[in-house]
Write a structure and sequence with these properties.
The complex is a heterodimer. By secondary structure, chain A is mainly alpha-helical. Chain A is built from 14 helices and eight strands. Classes of the chains: A mainly alpha, B mainly alpha.
Chain lengths: ~450, ~350
């Protein structure tokens, strides 16, 4: 394989993966902060306001990192993927430009008010600024998903004389059915991150025995939201997304499940290592006929394996795709189990005394991040070898004028800067957690 | 339709330079005009609630450029690969300089981020000027519409261009001086006492340099690319540009002397808009001139997106810009007046 191609793919993959650590939390926290602010207004309870302010500070740090690591994403369409941009800019330029006009301006304008304007605004206006930030971040999410959805399942375009694609139907692009499922699945995933992070910090305070009132609010809000959205993550959103893949990217589905041969009554592999050389699964643990049932709602339905497709159209990294998908699904299942048990304990008024459960919630912190990252890896590796599914191969999309050496130079530069950003981020968030929700002092957010 | 989108992108770029320009300029004077933490916090407060919104104009202008002229976006972004990546790194450093400084009341921590913020602001101003210089001078476009420029070659203006040569370095210096004065005038509008006086003095001291550089850069531009005068010869409306530029320079001097801070700042806004409109007017309909063969130049016609997309885009763009102007008026009114240190914030 061409080494410049690998450098450009790694460049985007690395910057996108690091970037998405921050928006998934801000998008997930935003509605939860609105809920806390609403409760504060309704109950006229200062504890809820302190809770909202604490999460606003965490939100602020994450937001800054989300913005600064997000700008390179838009740039890289032109810098590293210029042949793709020339080919598809006439279509996806629409959604990317709309993101700037409708989401970024809204978000950035009201974020300042939300973070620093509490004293200048009435409580009701401050609530509205929180809602505006929430809307801005979720609208932004939609336009990005619509862009990605078009690359997964291109619609509303026509071929121009010069070989590029141009918009033919705006509404087909914006209302792409793939985008709706992907958006629902993705946003639900980000609320899971927000909810589990909130519950985790709450559990930390309860176990520590400090800021107990706030800790309870965090745990309660976190596990309820976590429970609702963990279930929504599987059904209907995960199921709907899966059906989209089965219908429009059958080769991807086969690779995700590591189903090398087509068969009726296909099994669902739970654990096992795909052996791409031998085209088998090593050490498989599987549920017979389950894949047929999940995909087509019939036990004996025939599922297409990879052998039904020409090898040049197979995803290029089948084991990584298979693991990403299985890690995502496995963690999603564990999230349901944990949050359902936590909600039952809450309902029985036993949650805040159940230290074992608080420990589990505390230690859950990294896993929603892993699950969301694995989910995106499934989507992006699954789309290979295509950059735009069925229309343009990844091989044809990168900037031919930017050599592997130049790409490597900036990739290393990003790695260095992101390492520093990551360390600063952990340091600042740790300080905020230690400072707790009560102290209002301190020059910062 | 292509001409309309050319104007829209030009207006958005101008809005970006005027708005983010003042917070970049405030960053440049930050280290030497503001003595001690209270004054530095005044500057951060003056730009704190708005800098992120201002920077979004860069993203929105970039997104609009991508949407309206995908071929130009693809070609210029890959061709200017190295400097653009450096711009990204500087934008990141600058953002964390502003936002993370206040998280710890430690002189070492704050001193570090002060320098990060100020130096990255100054370098960004130079980079943006050099970028504009590259676009006016032309780039080594090939027949397939792509190019790749190294950072520098022999610093001469010819066909073997680097990003930096004497002309683009001059453009970078013009941008640095212009935005420094612009930022100083903004700081003067937003602050009182000693800091206000120092900011005003900085702007006044820069004024003769700015006039000299304006004349010098115009002469250099006419010398390396005589074609820039064609549009001015054919359409006499273009003569408004030098009028606006001269007029605003006079206003900046007169208002600066009289202590009319807002008028001086407005003068600087008009100066920047005048210079940018002048450049856009001179280039039109070319958007990226080729230094190799003029027929390889990218124009608004050979780099635009499909007509249907451009027409559809106009309807959402109008809605978007009306909303955006609404937010900006609201935010700037909310944080109007001189900054006070008692409020919450930076």
């Amino acid at each position: 394989m061409d080494s410049a191609l690998i450098v450009h793919r790694l460049h985007f993959a690395f910057t996108a993966t690091f970037h998405y650590l921050f928006p998934q939390l801000t998008m997930g926290l935003a509605p939860l902060i609105v809920i806390l602010k609403t409760l504060a207004l309704r109950r006229n309870d200062e504890t809820y306001n302190q809770a909202a302010r604490f999460w606003a500070r965490i939100f602020g740090i994450n937001f800054v990192l989300g913005v600064v690591t997000g700008i390179p994403m838009e740039f890289q369409f032109g810098t590293n993927w210029s042949h793709f941009s020339r080919f598809a800019g006439g279509v996806i330029g629409q959604t990317l430009a709309m993101e700037g006009m409708f989401a970024f301006f809204l978000e950035s304008a009201f974020l300042g008010l939300f973070l620093y304007g509490e004293k200048r605004l009435s409580p009701r206006m401050h609530w509205w600024s929180a809602v505006a930030v929430f809307l801005g971040s979720w609208i932004s999410g939609y336009f990005i998903i619509a862009t990605n959805a078009w690359m997964q399942y291109p619609v509303g375009y026509e071929r121009a004389a010069d070989g590029s694609v141009q918009l033919s139907s705006f509404w087909a692009l914006v209302l792409n059915p793939w985008a709706w499922w992907q958006y629902a699945h993705n946003m639900s995933g980000s609320v899971i991150t927000g909810a589990f992070v909130m519950a985790s910090i709450g559990a930390f305070y309860l176990l520590w025995g400090k800021y107990v009132d706030h800790g309870r609010i965090f745990v309660k809000t976190g596990v309820i939201a976590g429970c609702i959205f963990s279930i929504l993550q599987v059904f209907p959103t995960g199921d709907g997304q899966g059906k989209m893949v089965a219908r429009h990217q059958p080769a991807t589905l086969a690779a995700m499940e590591a189903l090398f041969t087509s068969q009726p009554g296909a099994p669902l592999i739970i654990i096992g290592q795909p052996n791409a050389e031998e085209k088998t699964i090593d050490n498989p643990l599987y549920v017979p006929k389950m894949l047929s049932m999940l995909t087509y709602r019939r036990w004996e339905a025939r599922v297409q394996g990879l052998d039904s497709f020409p090898q040049e159209d197979w995803p290029t990294n089948i084991p990584l795709l298979y693991y990403s998908y299985h890690i995502m699904v496995g963690l999603g299942t564990i999230f349901i189990a944990i949050s359902v048990v936590a909600v039952l304990l809450l309902w029985r008024n036993k949650l805040f005394q159940a230290r074992w459960m608080l420990w589990i919630l505390l230690l859950c912190l990294p896993f929603p991040y892993i699950a969301n990252t694995a989910g995106w890896m499934t989507a992006e590796l699954g789309r290979q070898p295509w950059l735009v599914y069925g229309l343009m191969r990844t091989l044809d999309g990168y900037s031919k004028t930017v050599s592997a050496g130049n790409g490597m130079f900036t990739l290393l530069g990003f790695m260095g800067i992101y390492l520093v950003l990551g360390i600063l981020f952990l340091f600042l968030v740790r300080r905020e957690i230690e400072r707790g929700p009560v102290s209002e002092a301190g020059g910062g957010h | 339709m292509e001409t309309l989108w050319f104007c829209i992108v030009a207006v958005m770029v101008a809005a970006y330079v005027v708005l983010d320009g003042f917070d970049l300029g405030a960053g440049v004077i930050y280290l030497f005009a503001a003595k001690g933490t209270p004054e530095r916090r005044m500057i951060l407060r003056a730009i704190g609630p708005v800098w992120d919104g201002n920077e979004v104009w860069l993203l929105a202008a970039g997104g609009t450029l991508y949407f309206a002229f995908p071929q130009l976006y693809a070609s210029s972004f890959s061709g200017f690969y190295l400097p653009l990546m450096m711009v990204l790194w500087l934008l990141m450093l600058r953002a964390i300089g502003i936002e993370f400084r206040t998280h710890m009341e430690n002189p070492v921590w704050q001193g570090f981020f002060d320098v990060v913020f100020s130096v990255s602001s100054a370098l960004l101003a130079i980079f943006f000027g050099a970028a504009l210089g590259n676009v006016i001078r032309g780039v080594p476009l090939r027949a397939d519409g792509y190019f790749f420029e190294p950072l520098w070659t022999d610093f001469r203006v010819g066909t073997n261009n680097g990003i930096l040569d004497w002309y683009t370095v001059l453009a970078g210096v013009v941008a640095l001086v212009t935005l420094t004065a612009h930022g100083a005038l903004y700081v003067a509008v937003k602050t009182e006492n000693e800091l206000n006086r120092r900011a005003r003095r900085t702007a006044l001291a820069l004024w003769p340099v700015q006039v000299l550089l304006t004349v010098l850069s115009l002469a250099a531009t006419c010398w390396i690319r005589p074609q820039v005068l064609d549009n001015y010869r054919e359409h006499s409306i273009g003569m408004l540009v030098p009028l606006v530029v001269t007029g605003s320079l006079i206003v900046m001097f007169w208002a600066g002397r009289k202590g009319l801070e807002k008028a001086a700042f407005l003068g600087s806004c008009f100066y920047i808009v005048g210079m940018l409109v002048g450049a856009a007017f001179a280039l039109y309909p070319v958007v990226l001139p080729a230094s190799t063969d003029p027929s390889y130049s990218l124009t608004i016609y050979n780099s635009a997106a499909g007509r249907h997309g451009l027409i559809v885009g106009l309807s959402w763009w109008i809605i978007g810009i009306v909303l955006t102007l609404g937010y900006f008026v609201f935010i700037y009114r909310m944080f109007r007046g001189k900054v006070k240190l008692e409020d919450a914030g930076y």
